[in-house]
């Protein structure tokens, strides 16, 4: 009888006919395997191309290598010159006839070899790879020309010296990138010549010979050759990641052939695809990449469960695995992307070790390779349902205790499962629990991993039956001490990705219930109180608002629900009051720390580039140091004024020195976010950490920004009018300014006319300023707070204007204060609107143009602006980073 691969169509029909029966695996096991009327249907259609994370990683590494090479070429001038001298000295000793012959032979071979490979692929009907190679070659050629043009016209002189030299025989200058070598390398890499040893040896030998020939002949430089190779390599992998690589996944027919190869006689195979939500759970760790599972019926004997893993599945979740390896300590020491052979050996080892430990696990019968890109593991079939498929009333205490007994058996032999969620616990008809998905486990595991397994299974059962029953079942089998030892690992970062996702969803539902309870209590209070009389005095209105706020606070307190992890801790503490509850520090690096490090590197790069700028050198040489110190003093004053301004819109009491520290930290945050976003987000977070509710914190920051925007516009109009009366004859009537204003007007009309854009803008504004008006009403009722907010805002603007004035005076130039105020307000407005961090570029350009427009010489204007930005943006970076770190350590932001 011919084997049949039954696909999803038949499985859907069976599900429609028997909706209340067991899943497809059991349904097929009960079906007659000898039916002859089964329709031959191949597996679900596989995607023709796959986007491999490894290609993206190679692209990023290539870009980093190019950047590092260009940095060396720019700054290590002595090194580049020394390398070129050594190459020239060696080339002078080489016979000219040999150089000419090698150049001619390599130039011909470097074109013939790729063509020969293309013909060989076309004969084998693999034209897609050739198309990928041609596309990569075209892109590499275009990028090479663009890069050469940039180097020749815009790159620093030191970089040009490293990549360009005088051509021999008076031929002018050489190209920064070798003309045809980059496309050839891109083509060879994209078509897969590097995966075939014979072709790889021939291709790279020819490329190396050609590179040496042109280098010795004086047609290029060593750095040019290196950049050429990196550009070709990087473009090839970028192309492969963008368009995808041909899918070489093993098919069902290959599976049947592999089963016959290991001695089985299959009759039928049903593809047991997981639903999309289950596939996401399968990606929870690196070793748990989604696999293909089959139920295979044999001519004689019980059916088999077959798992197929291929390279695409190995790459699934690659970046998540890399992040987990970097972020968590003591979790895994294995490679982030193991080979198929290593994955096969790991899973087989765990299967044998689990059974040897006395745990119930599917028995591994056979393993085999399915070609160079896939492997299979054959298990005995265990009919049953996983824990997630069981209804809640079937999750009994006996079942949970049985599961804990299996975990105890594993832990007695120091085996960590590392994935004890609902999909990994299989329950058969007799209620016996089997541990599946062992492929992500660890042998000879440390205490940390074993305790994490306990915490994970506690959470898994807690999500189904509640904290009390889950803890009771665990204590019955493990004992109170073992359960108590897992409490420090009972934290989201130690749980699986699927469990964390479920906990987040439950948290959102709790938040929604709390919000609804507050709204219901407020509505009931207002109905019971009735409306206030129109002639009510201020004291009565204020008392009514305070009473309503108290009702809201009480409703929120009564509606609060503890999360599952807290409930589990409470249950364990009832049994072991002395149990440790302080979360263990298993994070090597937190996302916030990583962002801080990236921002610090970014800041250091820009700060260094600004300090070595010749214009800054002129600042230090020509500046009046007395006015420089004055400018620094006014810059420091802005942070105290910003703290006063923020607290003026916060009715609650907040520590002022710590608020000043938060404003200093904001100077560091501006480096990784636009100026109008980073500071607002930091202030909102700071206020929440100081005890304000999230809604009130955002509303206070929104009110401060809204009022700041209004005052900014009013000050700009006022000082603009005063400046106009002073400089009307001298103000330039530039067409560019008029064109810019018209462009802004047209953009505003387009946004107003297009419903989609209008809706998006309105929703964003509504979300940002939700609750701002009520918050401003609360502030208005406190005149001192309102005056503090207004005064702080005006003081901050005045300090910035005086800092710019001092920077201008440092170069011996003066302007009226209204003029300087207009220049600053206009430049700050454009800088805040620019999407660059801290308004880099936009503020400098606007301030310089503004000062020049009012008669300041361009050199003086640029020097003053650079000094102003140094005092207000670059120098505060280091104190800002220290303040950010300090507040983070104290959990104040």
From TrEMBL:
Instruction: Spell out the residue ranges making up region: Disordered.
Output: 1-33
Q: What is its main location?
A: membrane
Q: Which InterPro entries match?
A: Kinase-like_dom_sf (IPR011009), L-PG_synthase/AglD (IPR022791)
Q: Which organism is it from?
A: Streptomyces sedi
Transmembrane stretches in the record are 56-77, 97-118, 130-152, 177-194, 201-217, 223-243, 594-613, 625-648, 702-724, 736-757, 786-808, 860-884
Where found, per UniProt?
Cell membrane
List the NCBIfam families hit by this protein, alphabetically.
flippase-like domain
Q: Which GO terms describe its cellular component?
A: plasma membrane
Q: Which Pfam families match?
A: LPG_synthase_TM
Which of UniProt's keywords are assigned here?
Cell membrane, Membrane, Transmembrane, Transmembrane helix
Source organism superkingdom: Bacteria
Membrane topology designation: Multi-pass membrane protein
- Write down what this protein is called: Flippase-like domain-containing protein
Q: Compositional bias (Basic and acidic residues) spans?
A: 1-17
């Amino acid at each position: 009888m011919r084997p049949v691969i039954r696909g999803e169509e038949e499985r859907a029909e069976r599900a429609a006919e028997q909706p209340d029966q067991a899943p497809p695996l059991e349904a097929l096991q009960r079906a007659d395997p000898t039916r002859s009327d089964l329709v031959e249907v191949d597996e679900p259609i596989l995607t023709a191309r796959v986007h491999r994370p490894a290609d993206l990683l190679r692209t990023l590494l290539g870009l980093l290598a190019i950047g590092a090479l260009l940095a060396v070429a720019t700054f290590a001038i002595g090194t580049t010159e020394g390398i070129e001298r050594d190459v020239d000295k060696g080339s002078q000793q080489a016979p000219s006839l040999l150089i000419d012959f090698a150049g001619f032979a390599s130039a011909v071979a470097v074109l013939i070899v790729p063509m020969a490979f293309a013909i060989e692929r076309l004969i084998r009907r693999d034209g897609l790879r050739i198309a990928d190679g041609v596309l990569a070659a075209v892109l590499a050629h275009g990028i090479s020309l663009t890069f050469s043009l940039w180097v020749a016209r815009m790159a620093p002189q030191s970089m040009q010296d490293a990549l360009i030299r005088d051509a021999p025989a008076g031929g002018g200058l050489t190209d920064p990138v070798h003309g045809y070598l980059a496309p050839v390398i891109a083509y060879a890499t994209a078509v897969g010549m590097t995966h075939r040893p014979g072709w790889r040896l021939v291709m790279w030998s020819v490329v190396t010979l050609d590179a040496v020939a042109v280098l010795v002949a004086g047609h290029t430089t060593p750095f040019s050759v290196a950049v050429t190779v990196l550009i070709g390599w990087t473009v090839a992998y970028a192309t492969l990641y963008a368009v995808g690589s041909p899918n070489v996944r093993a098919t069902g027919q290959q599976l049947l052939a592999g089963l016959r190869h290991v001695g089985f006689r299959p009759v039928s195979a049903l593809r047991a695809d997981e639903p999309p939500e289950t596939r996401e759970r399968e990606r929870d760790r690196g070793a748990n990449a989604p696999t293909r599972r089959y139920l295979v019926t044999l001519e004689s004997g019980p059916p088999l469960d077959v798992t197929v893993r291929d390279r695409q599945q190995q790459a699934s979740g690659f970046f998540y695995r890399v992040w987990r390896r970097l972020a968590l300590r003591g979790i895994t020491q294995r490679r982030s992307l193991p080979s198929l052979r290593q994955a096969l050996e790991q899973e087989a080892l765990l299967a044998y070790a689990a059974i040897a430990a006395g745990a119930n696990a599917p028995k591994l019968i056979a393993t085999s390779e399915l070609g160079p890109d896939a492997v299979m593991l054959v298990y005995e079939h265990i009919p049953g349902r996983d824990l997630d498929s069981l209804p809640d009333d079937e999750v009994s205490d006996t079942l949970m205790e049985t599961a804990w007994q299996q975990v105890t058996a594993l832990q007695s032999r120091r085996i960590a499962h590392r994935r004890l969620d609902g999909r990994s616990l299989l329950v058969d008809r007799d209620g016996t629990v089997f541990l599946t998905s062992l492929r992500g486990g660890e042998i000879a595991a440390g205490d940390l991993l074993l305790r994490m397994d306990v915490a994970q299974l506690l959470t898994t059962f807690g999500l189904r039956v509640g904290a009390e029953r889950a803890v009771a079942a665990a204590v019955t089998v493990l004992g109170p001490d073992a359960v108590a030892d897992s409490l420090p690992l009972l934290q989201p970062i130690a749980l699986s990705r699927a469990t964390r996702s479920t906990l987040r969803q439950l948290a959102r539902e709790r938040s929604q219930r709390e919000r609804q309870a507050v709204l219901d209590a407020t509505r009931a209070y207002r109905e019971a109180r009735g409306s206030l009389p129109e002639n009510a005095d201020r004291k009565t209105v204020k008392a009514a608002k305070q009473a309503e706020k108290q009702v809201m606070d009480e409703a929120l307190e009564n509606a609060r629900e503890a999360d599952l992890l807290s409930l589990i801790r409470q249950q364990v503490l009832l049994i072991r009051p002395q149990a440790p509850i302080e979360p263990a520090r298993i994070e090597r690096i937190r996302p916030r720390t990583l962002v801080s490090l990236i921002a610090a590197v970014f800041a250091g790069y820009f700060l260094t580039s600004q300090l070595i700028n010749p214009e800054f050198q002129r600042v230090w040489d020509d500046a009046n140091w007395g006015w420089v110190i004055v400018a620094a003093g006014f810059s420091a004053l802005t942070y105290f004024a910003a703290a006063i301004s923020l607290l003026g819109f916060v009715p609650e009491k907040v520590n002022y020195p710590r608020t000043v520290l938060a404003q200093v930290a904001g100077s560091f945050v501006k480096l990784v976010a636009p100026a109008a976003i980073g500071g607002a987000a930091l202030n909102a977070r700071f206020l929440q950490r100081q005890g304000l509710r999230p809604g009130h914190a955002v509303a206070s920051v929104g009110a401060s920004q809204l009022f700041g925007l209004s005052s900014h516009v009013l000050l700009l109009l006022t000082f603009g009018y005063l400046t106009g009366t002073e400089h009307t004859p001298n103000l330039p009537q530039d067409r560019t300014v008029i064109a810019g204003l018209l462009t802004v007007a047209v953009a505003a009309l387009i946004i107003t006319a297009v419903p989609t854009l209008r809706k998006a803008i309105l929703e964003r504004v509504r979300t940002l300023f939700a609750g701002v008006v009520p918050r401003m009403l609360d502030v208005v009722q406190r005149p001192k707070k309102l005056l503090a907010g207004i005064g702080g805002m005006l003081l901050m603007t005045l300090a910035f204007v005086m800092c710019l004035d001092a920077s201008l005076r440092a170069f011996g130039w003066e302007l009226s204060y209204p003029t300087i105020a207009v220049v600053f307000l206009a430049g700050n407005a454009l800088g805040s609107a620019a999407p660059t961090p801290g308004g880099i570029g936009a503020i400098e350009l606007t301030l310089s143009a503004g000062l020049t427009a009012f008669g300041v010489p361009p050199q003086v204007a640029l020097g003053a602006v650079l000094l102003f930005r140094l005092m207000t943006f670059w120098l505060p970076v280091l104190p800002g980073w220290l303040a950010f770190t300090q507040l983070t350590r104290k959990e104040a932001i």
